[in-house]
């Protein structure tokens, strides 16, 4: 088993809520704030007791120099070694200026990148491992790129590449896009991908908490982003 550090969006799991209750530091904990963690979900006992395997998306091999999506597809990351993790339990840690949801601080967010790679950013954007590039340019290796997406009720993922939409219907499917060379790799588990919590604008300005895309404001604040005094 290994520790996991997230530099993107924190998750308050049911395990953490139970720990807070049992520790006695809080009189009550709002169960509506519990969130589902997909880290290692349904991976079996070997995920806990066995060796870390870079065939699982949770882990990677240090030294590969690849820039791929982190486990939750929040952004482009690099495989990092940490003295606090077990041997070979290395993970992709999102680069600070490569978070797909943070369009104000993303190195890909410039006109040339958007035109050549078809990328987009914002709360409805996630990272996809992709080698797509305008066919007028030389091919590139697969890397984490940001695209706007939507999920259907059948857990199909519709990805917007430039002005074109393509649909992920199968786990790990590789898609071609007209006008681009290379391919886009669909998420490993589409049902989990579509169940990831939705993000809130500006993280509710720290004046409330995010409940699957909706800000629940603390007393004294109001507004979609909890940025107004009540």
UniProtKB/TrEMBL annotation:
Keyword Magnesium in annotation: no
Record flagged with keyword Signal: yes
Record-linked SUPFAM superfamilies: Metalloproteases ('zincins'), catalytic domain (SSF55486)
Cofactor list: Zn(2+)
Signal peptide start-end: 1-18
UniProt keyword list: Hydrolase, Metal-binding, Metalloprotease, Protease, Signal, Zinc
Protein name (Swiss-Prot/TrEMBL): Leishmanolysin family protein, putative
